[in-house]
Amino acid sequence: MANKKITIDNLAIMMKKGFDDTATKIQVSGLEKRVDGLEGRFDGVEKRLDKIDARLERIEGTILKHHASQIESLEKRILRLEETSSIE
Asked: Is-contact 62 56, C-beta < 8 A?
């Protein structure tokens, strides 16, 4: 690629185009206000997720307890079958 001479005017135009795409302080301030306004909205979501987590933990505990009970019952039945049939 050949070296291209850049004039001060060309450089000024390139700089202006770069700054045209940059957010202003007012735009950034407006965005900060919008983000700050969203903070309170997530509190409700967090509380609901905490409730869902608690419910899932209870359900999981109930299921595990039920399965443990069933496994224990099956083990007892197998022991009785082994004892009555003299199988080990």
From this structure: no
**Each residue's pLDDT tens digit, 23-56:** 788 888 888 888 877 777 777 888 899 999 999 9
Query: At 49, which amino acid appears?
Result: L
User: What's the pTM value of the predicted model, to 2 decimals?
Assistant: 0.41
Look up tokens 């795409």; give the residue: 21
Helices (H) and strands (E) in the chain, counts: 3, 0
CA distance 88 to 80: 11
Phi-psi region of 87 (alpha: psi -120 to 50; beta: other; left: phi over 0): beta
